[in-house]
Amino acid sequence: MESGASATERKRSLLERPFLEYERRDAEPLFDHVADDVHWTVMGTHPLAGEHRSREEFRQATYERLDAVLEAPSVTAYVDSALVAELFASIDPG
To answer: Is the pTM higher than 0.70?
Structure first.
């Protein structure tokens, strides 16, 4: 049986890996791990903030809009931190 600490680290690794690929400008590994019927909330008051009730809705409202910005060589996406607990995960993109 896996200890709580090692289970959390495994979850953190599974969560961070697709975002690390996104840092390399490849969003597909991220969306390979997102359910079609995801309920995704982007917190804040910026233009990308809001609630999305499907993978495709989220993708169109956020990542497809970001792609044009992130194509500029001077802009880099990166994972700043990850919070993982039982059924909850949060990524801070920095």
So the answer is: no
